[in-house]
Amino acid sequence: MLTRRRAAQFLATAATGLALSATHVSESWAADTVFKVAVDCSLTGADSESAVRVRNGVTMAIEEANDANAIPGIKLELVTYDDGTPTAGQYDPAQAATNARKMVSDRDVMAAVGPQMSGAGKAMAPILSQGGLAIITPASTNPDITNPKFAEQYRPAGKPIYFRTVTTDAYQGPNMANFFADKLKVKNVYVLDDSGAYGVGIADTFQKQAEAKGIKILGRDRLDPKAADYTTILTKIKSLNPEALYYGGVGQAGVKLAKQSYDIIPNVIKGGGDGMYGPAMLTAVGFPAAAGWYATIASPHLVGDTKAQAFVDHYMGRFHSPPDDYTITAYDATLVIIDSIRRVAASGKKVTRDAVRDAIQTAKVNTIQGVV
Amino acid sequence: MTSWTQPWLARIPEARRKQIGLTLLIIAALLFPILHDNDADIDSMANAAAYATLALGLNIVVGFAGLLDLGYAAFFAIGAYTYGLLTSFQLEPPWSPFWEPFRQVGLVSQIAGDSGGMAVHFTLSFWIALPLAAAVAAFWGMVFGAPTLRLRGDYLAIVTLGFGEIVPIVVRNWSDLTGGAAGLNGVAAPKLFGWSFGVDATPYYYVAIAMVALLIFVSLRLRDSRIGRAWMAIREDEIAAAAMGVDRTRFKLMAFAIGAAFGGMTGVFYVAKLQTATPEMFGFPVSVMILVMIVFGGIGSVWGVVLGAFILQLLQSWWLKDLTTWLNAAGRLVHSDWLAHVDLVPSIELIFGLILVGMMLFRREGLIPATRPQAALSFDQQHAEVRRGGFKDLELEGLGGERRSGETAMAIRDVTVRFGGLVALNKVSLDVPVGSVIAVIGPNGSGKSTLFNVITGLVPAESGAITFHGDELTNLPPHEILKKGVARTFQNLRLFGNLTVLENVLIGQHARLNTGIAAAILRPRSTRDEEAEAQRWAMQIFGIFGNRLVPRIGQMVTGLSYANRRRTEIARALASRPRILLLDEPTAGMNPAETLELAEQVKSLNQLGLTVLLIEHKLDVVTTLADRVYVLDHGEIIAQGTPAEVRQDEEVLRAYLGRNAQAAAAGVAVNA
Amino acid sequence: MTTFDLLLQQTINGLSLGAMYSLLALGFTLVYGILELINFAHFNVFMVGSFIAMGVLQLFGLNGQEVILTGLPLAMVLIAAFAVTMVASGALGVAIEVLSLRPLRNVKGPAAMITTIGVSYILFNVVLLSQGADAKNFPNPLPTKRFQIGGATLDLRVILIWIVALALMAGLYVFVQRSKMGKAMRATAQDPEAARMMGVEVDRVIVTAFFLGSALAGAGGLIFGLYYNFTSFIIGFTAGLRAFTAAVLGGIGNVPGAMVGGVLIGLIEAMAGQFIATAWADVIIFSILVLVLVFKPAGLFGRLAPQKS
Questions:
Q1: Which of B63, B66, B82, B466 is deepest in the core (most CB within 10 A)?
Q2: Interchain proximity C294–B364, CB inside 8 Å
Q3: How many domains does chain C contain in total?
């Protein structure tokens, strides 16, 4: 009698076989000169809101390029990789690493957009470097990955492969600190972050620059983005009577913070990074609460700009929900990739990852944000 | 499974079949990266293997020892950060001569520090980190385990959940040490003979597979040893385990420590492969997922939890994506627009939820159940061959052998036990001479079982003293009391339900065996001999009951008849080679023939020189067996003497029957 | 702000949090008292409750923060919203009980608890996939009115939350203590077998416990929405975990214990945020939990039901 254990092994093998044949099917569909652009974002779990917007941005850029036949003779295809897993309940660096390998091992993938989280970026960078695949991040802004100190780890193959269409935390935080000190003449400030890599990083750099500028740091605390109640900490901040509050973090905690701080400390100057923008801020907070916030934007916020307006209209038509800044940076990142592939193809060279990587490094593209 | 495989597979003996299966599995695992040359899928397999080792670790805590742990990812994190901190640029203390010896052996190197001057860079080898992190995690396993020892299952779950929440928060907030939310930078890849693993998935895969193989081996060895049996005894019935000589504190901590060690090792591997770590990788969802894996695979089943981990992990990282591609392709073929665009990936958590609920409702025992169905007994085996005393053919040299010398074996002096306001025993004194049978009778609720409980250390005595062959027993822990030679049965039967008859009796021998962790894993000759002797001894004990138990030794005790369960419990107590046997209503629920049979067997045991203290309601049994009878009522001894004397005692009759009925029923009812 | 004002303000904050935790903790405690089951699905019943409440308020034409009601219309809308939300959440709890837990009634071990984890995943993802991941703007028809007590501010909303929570808890307490079903519940918590023999329909008792617990969670969801003006698929976890801690702290299975436990956890959270840091609030809450369980395993107020072996 076949034992149950063995039967289960058979099942596992069968499932593997199934998966293998699935791979073949997908390959057989990629017939003509189709190149792929990969996107990695955290569709599963807590960060899925902005992940969808990132993916939509990339989708739109690629659809437009294909419709307009932007690269003669070449069609682009989008492959989406999800680095969120149920195991982690949010982005999972291990899955990001696996995705990086998937991108590398798929020879049609010429370049990639992603990831949202620096933790995922750190796991992906060495693998992509080894595979010579360039990635442009629309959101992850932690400076470690491009820091020369860690070059050996994050780009073992030598050439840079990790690019951004956003400015790093290293500039955003200090910019706001300068703004607070020079323009608003703020004397003291309370600093909050949202526990995430992005938020902690941007708050740290803000704090450093603020101290250098002579602004007194009254305190520093951390919000749990999954918690709902920030009245406690805001009451504490109120009791310290600061002139300003700086929040480094994304919208998840930011929305609630904006709402509750409007109730508790309406007269304090509030500032944040680009995480404090986005449609969630407008729909969930309601207009009056959102007022009174200053935000630096790594991805320049573009309401009122005609080019951006056209983009927003187009996006709304396609996806029936408003884009956020990371949609735009993701869209722009894709434009850079498309343009790079076009230039490589136009120069008569064979389109390879390496060629695309070099082209990205020298890219000058007219994007929504301006020339990148 | 299927009928066509029956003829040729059945001809191969089962042990051989297992061997072949295992060999094929190993070959498949070794060849996988060669046959399936896809770096991402190999990486997925390596991650899945890491989760399999986590599942194996949690299985020791939850599956074997039955301690529900909802914060297991904490140990994963501890192992991960142990390696992460000792190989990355996270900690860079200034260089001082103190570090020179460490540099000599390659644990640290000298680098230029950030703020000028030289700094220390830790360069711990991956291979040293594995056991080191296992030890560190094991230490924390015991630290987290210690406060939970007194707690029952659900409370234990809550406390572990608390620790599981605390550890990632500490990691996140203590950013000077851990890099906080931004994650570790520059974690070194493992090196083997100077060759760095780098970012290629294949070497990691082989390390992971080797770890899974090692931990499967360790799990199986532990499970089938004295240690595994002790864990399962705790899982099945903590009180009975203690009464059978299992040191609960020690074995629970051991389970926590070993489980944590597995998690710590996995953490090292995981971080070495990923070369970064963030606190988000070790949150509550991770703990829950590992628990789900072992439940899905089969809680307590070593192969089951490995399979569960592989399936659930690969489903997330590999199959679901491909399945989606495949469905979409199929949709295009059949022109189904919905099928062509359906994306399963965002629904993965929903799919998990459905799997989980479905499994619980329809296949609770998991993919590979820990317990297998047993073959039915043949007609001959079911036919009882009654043994009436005299164990000439058995080698029971370890039992009894004590002469009636008139000396006192057990002396109970003025023992008082109080439950809140209720006095359960009030200054009870009682002597058990060596080699005698002493019976304690009394109405229900008179304190008889409490007397046994206080002797065996299950309830504390408020005052008074109990000595056994001169040793003080009062307020010793139960397992120490058993070691001194006091073994008992329970009125309401406290067998280890989901274990076999043989395993129950082997657990009875727990205190007489010595196998420790290392011996259980390595299984040297001395351990093999000890196990063989334990089996032999168990068979001799079973012989006491004729063929009542012998054909059933491989069966779960839950499937036994009531009388056989009573016998198993007595056998379990006898297996510990006691100097005194405490029987709490051993014939309850038996028919007259079975009662007689058992009474004769007890008599024979006593004739071998075993001292017996007996609680019994059936007065004919008491009359047959007992040298002396004590009568308890409302926690006090109201009469004592030979059986004949006690039968005449008016106070006894009153206690049993009440004042009014006493006159009418005198002399008749006591025989009932 | 003087120190006293600050303490007062933080106490107000803590009591508001605590009111919500208490309502949620009651659901844990009712189910645990009777089934000895840690019901992880309860986390997300609360979350679904807040979405139901949002739907109900939107049916009244309330969207976002624009419409402010006063007087009778406000009372009517609130009563209707609470009634519908509580009945619908209660029904959800009953459905969970009947469909997924009843078949496991006599199964030992963690099977039932793991089922509730599965149900929790399902609820979470059904909401995530159908409603989207972004935080929703919860309708708020309450007028903004603030009272100054010294330097501390007391919102009308907060007073309303306290009143509603107290009323619901008092109602529950009276129900459990006085009604026939309440007596049956307490009897079942003590000894289900004996209760069954005495003619108590244990299944009905369990269904009632799930209904009441889930209805209170639904009310908690509505209060959450009114208080914070948003809801999201993710709110169940943190609130649920703290409420659960509250139930254990008060002595799980003990109805008044859960109420007090909830308030205590709320106050601890507020004070920890004030005097230490919100970053460490969870560590403090869980450390207290561990200490209580180790030194007083039955919780601060003990369990009503004796330990069953």
A1: B63
A2: no
A3: 1
Nearest-CA distance A263 → chain B (Å): 28
Which residues on chain C place their C-beta less than 8 Å from a C-beta of chain B? 32, 36, 38, 100, 103-104, 107, 109-115, 117-122, 124-126, 128-129, 237, 241, 244-245, 248, 252, 279-280, 282-283, 286-287, 289-290, 293-294, 297, 307
A-B Cβ pairs (cutoff 8 Å, strict) = 194
Residue C84 domain flag: yes
Residues of A in contact with C153 (CB under 8 A): 264
Residue spans of the domains in chain A: they are: 32-166+307-371, 169-295
To the nearest whole angstrom, how far is the Cα of B498 from the nearest Cα of chain A? 20
Chains touching chain B, criterion 3+ CB pairs below 8 Å? A, C
Predicted TM-score (pTM) of this structure: 0.88
Name the residue of chain A whose CA is nearest to B350's CA: A86
Say yes or no for a CB contact (<8 Å) between C237 and A284.
Answer: no
Q: What is the pLDDT of residue B483?
A: 93
CATH of domain A32-166+307-371: 3.40.50.2300
CB atoms A87 and B172 under 8 Å: no
Mean pLDDT of A307-328: 73
Which residues does chain A have within 8 Å of residue B289's beta carbon, measured at their own beta carbons?
A: 86-87
Residue A213 main-chain phi, psi, to 5 deg = -85, 0
∠ Cα B171 B174 B175 (to 5°): 95
Who contacts B251 (Cβ-Cβ below 8 Å, separation ≥6)?
B65, B227, B230, B231, B234
Say whether pLDDT at B150 is over 80: no
Residues spanned by the domain of B434: 408-671
The answer to whether A32-166+307-371 and A169-295 have equal CATH topology is yes
In a domain, C22, yes or no: yes
pLDDT over threshold 50, residue A151: yes
pLDDT at C305 over 50: no
The interface pTM score, or ipTM, of the predicted complex is 0.87
Of A25, A87, A153, the CB nearest to B326: A25
Chain C partners within 8 Å of A237 (Cβ):
none
Task: Tell me which chain C residue has its CA closest to the CA of residue A288.
Answer: C65
Residues B329 and B444 in one domain: no
Query: Structure tokens of B161?
Result: 């959940």
CA distances from A162 to A37, A117, A351, B115, B179 (A): 15, 13, 19, 27, 21
CATH architecture classification, A169-295: 3-Layer(aba) Sandwich (3.40)
Distance from CA of A306 to the nearest CA of B (A): 34
CB of B224 within 8 Å of a chain C CB? The answer is: no
Q: Under DSSP, is residue C275 helix (H, G, I), strand (E, B) or coil?
A: helix
CATH of residue B607: 3.40.50.300
Could A235 and C6 be called an inter-chain contact, meaning their C-beta atoms sit closer than 8 Å? yes
> CB neighbours (10 Å) of residue B440?
26
For B337, counting Cβ atoms within 10 Å of its Cβ (0-12 exposed, 13-18 middle, 19+ buried), the class is exposed
Q: Write the pLDDT tens digit of every residue in B453-477.
A: 999 999 999 999 999 998 999 889 9
Eight-state DSSP code of residue B343: -
Contacts of C237 in chain B (CB under 8 A): 284
Rama region for A132: left / alpha / beta (φ>0; ψ in -120 to 50; rest)? left
Other Cβ atoms within 10 Å of B459 Cβ, number? 18
What distance in Å separates the CA atoms of residue C22 and residue B580, rounded to the nearest whole number? 54
